[in-house]
Amino acid sequence: MDFELSARSKDCLQRLGAFMDEHVYPNEQRYREERDAGDRWAEPALIAELQKKARAAGLWNLFLPESTRGAGLTNLEYAPLCEVMGRVVWSAEVFNCAAPDTGNMETLERYGTPEQKRQWLEPLLEGTIRSAFAMTEPRVASSDATNIESSIVRDGGSYVINGRKWWTSGAGSARCRLFIFMGKTDPGAPAHRQQSMILVPRETPGITILRHLPVFGYDDAPHGHMEIEFRDVRVPAANLLLGEGRGFEIAQGRLGPGRIHHAMRLIGVAERALEKMCRRVKARTAFGRPVAEQSVTLERIAESRIRIDQARLLVYKAAWLMDTVGNKAARADIAMIKIAAADTACQVTDWAIQAHGAAGLCEDFELASAYAHARSIRLADGPDEVHRNQIGRLELAKHP
Amino acid sequence: MDFELSARSKDCLQRLGAFMDEHVYPNEQRYREERDAGDRWAEPALIAELQKKARAAGLWNLFLPESTRGAGLTNLEYAPLCEVMGRVVWSAEVFNCAAPDTGNMETLERYGTPEQKRQWLEPLLEGTIRSAFAMTEPRVASSDATNIESSIVRDGGSYVINGRKWWTSGAGSARCRLFIFMGKTDPGAPAHRQQSMILVPRETPGITILRHLPVFGYDDAPHGHMEIEFRDVRVPAANLLLGEGRGFEIAQGRLGPGRIHHAMRLIGVAERALEKMCRRVKARTAFGRPVAEQSVTLERIAESRIRIDQARLLVYKAAWLMDTVGNKAARADIAMIKIAAADTACQVTDWAIQAHGAAGLCEDFELASAYAHARSIRLADGPDEVHRNQIGRLELAKHP
Amino acid sequence: MDFELSARSKDCLQRLGAFMDEHVYPNEQRYREERDAGDRWAEPALIAELQKKARAAGLWNLFLPESTRGAGLTNLEYAPLCEVMGRVVWSAEVFNCAAPDTGNMETLERYGTPEQKRQWLEPLLEGTIRSAFAMTEPRVASSDATNIESSIVRDGGSYVINGRKWWTSGAGSARCRLFIFMGKTDPGAPAHRQQSMILVPRETPGITILRHLPVFGYDDAPHGHMEIEFRDVRVPAANLLLGEGRGFEIAQGRLGPGRIHHAMRLIGVAERALEKMCRRVKARTAFGRPVAEQSVTLERIAESRIRIDQARLLVYKAAWLMDTVGNKAARADIAMIKIAAADTACQVTDWAIQAHGAAGLCEDFELASAYAHARSIRLADGPDEVHRNQIGRLELAKHP
Amino acid sequence: MDFELSARSKDCLQRLGAFMDEHVYPNEQRYREERDAGDRWAEPALIAELQKKARAAGLWNLFLPESTRGAGLTNLEYAPLCEVMGRVVWSAEVFNCAAPDTGNMETLERYGTPEQKRQWLEPLLEGTIRSAFAMTEPRVASSDATNIESSIVRDGGSYVINGRKWWTSGAGSARCRLFIFMGKTDPGAPAHRQQSMILVPRETPGITILRHLPVFGYDDAPHGHMEIEFRDVRVPAANLLLGEGRGFEIAQGRLGPGRIHHAMRLIGVAERALEKMCRRVKARTAFGRPVAEQSVTLERIAESRIRIDQARLLVYKAAWLMDTVGNKAARADIAMIKIAAADTACQVTDWAIQAHGAAGLCEDFELASAYAHARSIRLADGPDEVHRNQIGRLELAKHP
Fold it and tell me: A391 and chain B: CB distance < 8 Å anywhere?
């Protein structure tokens, strides 16, 4: 056992950290101003500017293990980079490592035809377009994929798509050009063979963005979570991914790496909140004593450190398992990190808010929005309860 | 001991409930639409419309115990009405029972001169104007009143006010006409004799509203929490409340009833969230079973019921103590209810969010905003930590 | 609403408190010494001595509402007395108010024939004998009464009893003379008509006490929890309570008051632990500061006060409901107090242990045993989970 | 980074597991019977019998890194073995790896003179004697070493020792022959140069064992925690360890490995409790459904798995740091694992108790004693609060 990062990972981490110090942290204020100044759904000019610099610095498409198109990092090697990007909510895009594009690129890389890759994977890897993943539906508990109601019906050389999706993250971006859409091709098939996934260009007629869905009052612009109607949306049959009835299989396959990314970004969120808490309590005095000297403050800082370090190690371990024994064998671990990381980030940001007094509630320290984001992950990809059920069943199965 | 409400309280409660059923719940959607349609800081027309009806129904100024100007209810009798109003965030204003006006009216009633009452208390009781309370400051831990930096300096027949305030709730309203302002008249006096309170008309020159402060992304319009600069703001000396150096005393005096109101409204928030959770879990099925049948769901509902009922009783007891032995003897209880009610409302709304899946995060069920509001109360009026410290010290003092 | 105790209750409380001060607290050490010196299962001589004094002081059989045999107190009036007795684990017996005798006496009073009362209720009320309640079985989840396996079979003028019971509390006492036994008379009847209860004299042939069951290492002598075999135990048919198939009904009927007693005693446990914690932290210094000055200490004391006060009010409310609308209408409340009181007592005693350092683990402050007792109540009378399920279902039923 | 155990560690682990399967688990009942049958403070014959087998199997003195006297394992390599031994509370002694002997042997190895090693280390390594560590005192908060009141006074060629110690674990064993005693040689020196450690043979006149101290009612025989009076105990001056005023330094030095051992054994405790919980819930049915199917059960199992895996990784990381950068650089991590492991073991055993119903409270499943043990670790070596304070301060120091 060895807790040292690989040389390759350390090198990337060092260069990424330097880039953050030079280009990202000093621009946090500018990002906010640009975003709030003009069209909230257009990307601040800062992003394109920094993307150019990141690419020049060799910090581009760092994800995508087992592929020549990425940086050649394993999941474990990539994980600490994700943590760093998690420290500034918009920074992953600078390195073309933002969700849901990463998951969509992985899906295309793994399951796409050469033509699908040429048409969609390449511009995504170039960062010239963005994409979204249309799975969750408003009318059913979508964590149970068998509940999905949207339909994908073959009609000659096309598929015709109907359904209502929501929480389609990233669909708000003016640069979004592609949906990966999940629906049922055969509602009469066995439960996990009913679903398929298909590529739907954003401009296809019949797609209506009904509204954006705020998270605790935040619109998360220019990314955004959208409710979308697909009415008689017709795409070429060649847009189907992998084959009819294989949607559930693809959904399972894309799960693992995305969880690592989400979880590590949340570790970054928690670390940053802890830093802010430390700085704040050192700067404030109440009732004659520095707040940093209060033992209740020290306890929360200590608990934050304990939880963060534990959660990070758990994610590293899951990444290592994915790299060595594969997603399927690691499925309990992949479920566990979602719960642990979100729980940790929620608790640490909540304590950080409390340490900042009322200033923690507004965006002067970007803590309330960090909490909202962390809280949303307890529901994203299925509520924690579904994952705990699965983990519990896998544990019970060890004792036949 | 007797847990039955008084006849007077029950009668009011019955009439209030009927009014809510007839005029408030059916208009929740309309309120949102009106608020979001035009100037967010103007009140929706609905409010004035319902205020007229409420007044006609004898549901007006229900607070204000020990005064002929109110409804003649004790704190304990008024408490359950507050809970009902807490169920719809904007409804208290319909009955002219909204914070911070209630606290300001109580302050004027208790400490104002006849002229101050004529000029400000009367229009407030009429509901023709609104008011705000300018106490918290951005640069210091304001829960410790000795930290306050704003100054109120006598200059001939006037006082000249300087300082920066924030989280001045209600200052966003287009109808806000009055600030009750806390500052130091004598920084050299003993710690709790330095502060004074003074009445500052909204239009006085030198007042600049710098920005509104969102709570978790919500602007809480048209109420709003504002950051305000007071620069050389000059008001007549007669605007001082009670006398120089008595600001801390007034602050203490106004605390009690406000805490009861806040706490009971939070009980209402929690009850409504629990209702929504119950309805949701009955309507949803996942993995072949109604979510309502899951024992984890039942556990959360049960814990919610236990916590809510306990917190409500604690608030009732504090109100009863205020009515029978006074604020000072009840000060530990008044501190306790703030903590218990906010904690309960946070936990129950969080569970309700989780039960709604992603729908809990946006405003379709108004749960995320309810959480944000409950969360903010853990900081309003001083962070919970300050109150727990006080409660702890009072407890230790019982064992000399 | 009124939180003042009735004059009768206050008078009893005052006299009980005086008795505790004069006779109980000063004898805690003596009790331990007597118990540990001789036969652990014989009662320390102190008990009989104090019982005489208590009776002389009119502090005898204070429970038993709605009966001329008791003190004529309602459940609500009796509740605060229970809290006081809970402060010293053995003190309830001094006033002939100890479980399970109280529950057994109530059962006999409510459901017994005149002859059953003469034979068993009278000596129990005199305190000349003690009793036990044999319900829980080792082989099944006994919280679900339909799982009960013991049999009660009619054979001529007798019933023949077979079964294995455990956690039969009080069966360890040398003075125990009676078991109230639950078993099935008709396993083929509808689920809640299969069970019956029957009176079994301790000396009946066929009863073997197999072992005593410790709770966290405590034998709880001379009370004790026993595992008992009943093999072909033959008692007169007249010993049956109420009638065949009515065991479940009796079990339900005896539930309410016992819960109030248990819960209020736990409040007493928690109050005493909090007192000990306060005294301890005032007496100790670490790293240059009194432990009482640490904010983490103050927070725990404050939280203890908040939780205790809330739990007490919840129990009072449940008692009031039992007195005014009856056990059935109050069944959710009766379930709630078991959870809330045990939870509170566990948390407060745990914090008190921590505040005492290693001294909290041994019996110098009787805190670890207090924790063990409180912890056991989370399982007694059915695990909390069963009660939360019931509370949850009752809540859901409000939203049809 | 790599989560694979070293070949040496895996080999030991495999052989240790096989030994446990063959010789330890099948003898758990026999151990209890032997212990409870005769003199509780004499070791069951089983121990010596198994020690012989363990030695023959090359499973002896597995601890003691960086020494030719041990098995040559690093802290990290030894850690997983500790977890396995933690699964059966008495098993570490079988492999001569039981506390406090391990800590005492490490202390002797690191700080002892050749003569001290010959006299005490060798028989300890042989397992022919046992030892204890006399540090904690009843009258002061001993987590703050500057509070220590015991004295070690030079008198000619001897030191004379006076003081009262308690919670001296292992002093109950009939085979205990040595105390390592902490006291002050110079109360006037700087705070951390006042203390010294000295070797005190058990038979030295003036040593009186006053009583054993139970933990939650368990005497932990034949190990036991003792309160001991040292009155004018005279030992040769050569028995001093390292030199006058170096006691604090030795105390710091011995801390690290002991924490790893304690923490990993607690992981073992938690794992075993989780196994028992899984088996139990699969075997029981209540209200018509297997308890294993209840989602509240699955949630607890899942949370247990998440917490255990996280805590284990945290301990591994701390061990790795100790091996690579040393105790001092790892001091925050060493403090963190004590908190995380005890917290995890307490929570998991508590849930396991609850899952077993009343059976969890007695020793049929050895869960209540496991809880008591885990709970005691929250106080052993200084209460968690002291460690959290230290961790908090180290964290704050990162943000100067």
Answer: no
pLDDT in tens, C257-275: 899 999 999 999 999 999 9
CA B324 to chain centre: 23
What is the distance between the alpha carbons of residues A281 and A290, in angstroms, rounded to a whole number?
Answer: 7
Measured CA to CA, the distance from residue A244 to residue A195 in angstroms comes to 7
Length of chain A counted residue by residue: 400
Q: What is the pLDDT of residue D143?
A: 84
pLDDT band at D391 (very low <50, low <70, confident <90, very high): very high
Using an 8 Å Cβ cutoff, are C348 and C342 in contact? no
At the topology level of CATH, where does B248-396 sit? Butyryl-CoA Dehydrogenase, subunit A; domain 3 (1.20.140)
Q: Output the pTM of the full model.
A: 0.97
For chain D, percent of residues with pLDDT exceeding 70: 100
What is the secondary structure of D64-118 as a DSSP string? -SSSTTS----HHHHHHHHHHHHTSTTHHHHTT--TTHHHHHHHHHHH--HHHII
**Nearest-Cα residue of chain B relative to residue A353:** B379
Quote the CA–CA distance of D3 and A316 in Å, as a whole number. 9
Cα distances from B389 to residues A280, A287, B372, B392, C293, in angstroms, run 20, 11, 24, 5, 9
pLDDT over 80 (residue A66): no
- C130-241 maps to which CATH number? 2.40.110.10
Q: Does D11 touch chain A (CB under 8 A)?
A: no
Chain A residue closest in CA terms to B218: A217
pLDDT score of A256: 83
Q: What are the chain C neighbours of B309 within 8 Å (beta carbons)?
A: 314, 317, 333, 336
Domains in chain A: boundaries: 7-112, 130-241, 248-396
Distance from CA of C65 to the nearest CA of A (A): 45
pLDDT at position B65: 79
pLDDT digits (tens, 9 = 90+) for C232-258: 999 999 999 999 999 999 998 888 889
pLDDT for the residue A64: 84
Give me chain C's average pLDDT, please.
95
> Cis ω on the peptide bond leading into residue D383 (within 30° of 0)?
no
User: Looking at the domain covering C7-112, what would its CATH class be?
Assistant: mainly alpha
Instruction: Compute the mean pLDDT over every residue in chain B, rounded to the nearest whole number.
Output: 95
| The three-state (H, E, C) secondary structure of C276-318, written as one string | HHHHHHHHCEECCEEHHHCHHHHHHHHHHHHHHHHHHHHHHHH
DSSP string, D216-248: TTB--TTT-EEEEEEEEEEEEGGGBSSSTT-HH
The reported pLDDT for the residue numbered B66 is 76
Q: Search chain C and give the residue with CA nearest A287.
A: C295
Structure tokens at A47: 């992003």
The residue among C102, C85, C99 whose CA lies nearest residue C24 is C85
Contact B169, B100 (CB under 8 A): yes
- Around B41, how many Cα atoms within 13 Å sit in the side-chain half-sphere? 14
pLDDT score at B287: 84
